[in-house]
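Recall the central idea of this unit: under ordinary conditions, the amino acid sequence of a chain determines the structure it adopts. In this exercise we apply that idea directly, starting from the sequence alone.
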Amino acid sequence: MTATPHVPYRLEFSVEVPGTAEQVWQAVATARGMSAWFLPTELEEREGGAVHFAMGPEMGSDGHVTAWEPPHRLAYEEDWAALMGKEPDELSPMTSEFLVEARSGGTCVVRVTTSGFGTGADWESEFWDDMGLNWKPYFDNLRLYLTHFPGQEATQLEVSVELPGDADALWTRLHDELGLGEVGEAVDVRGTPGVVERLGVRMALVRLTGPVPGLLSVYVHDYAEAAASATAGVRAYLFSEEAANFVKREEPAWKAWLEGLAGLAGLAGLATV
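Accordingly, the structure predicted from this sequence is:
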């Protein structure tokens, strides 16, 4: 018999961003806006509309809009059980709410709450802890998007590879090879100039300034399915008419560069996501 989900989980975030409530709403409550700083998103802009967040090849999270009150409140539910391969009654839906509050001086505060109920299994706490860590950097993306690229449509670049080795050692090599300095310092990312905007645990966010401007994050994390291995990756949101050509050229180049972190460039059999 499956236990009734009764153990609460909750995450809360807030970030102050530039723009009117209407401009911020377009960034947090439309498919075009969310795809420019979060995951590739499909969203029917109405109460009851479908929501889909793409998380990789043949992987994503599905749900529906439960509240649609432009330009101040969006809420949606995701099927957490289906995403995790669990029985439908083992987990409650996972609910997220975005509140946009206008402030004086041309800014808004975005408050985000995500909550759900589980059975108290150890993996559930780990899932929510990891989700909190993974969600937080996206709100830097949102702030920078509204500061530098408001209303623009993004072209995404994404590559990740699984590599043998220790995650910390791989991150040190990635960090050093890219020449990442302190926050606010200029950097040249494989021939593209930019500014370091965030440094975290085995991750960095760079605002690219040209010739194809955008936001680029690089990261390394432990690969859960194999011991003594890690995932190294890059995700970029690009804002230029030349972005599609840039992605076509740079995705294979980034793949080769990431593989080379472990001295494995050209070695067959590496998994690519």
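DSSP finds six helices and 13 strands in the chain.
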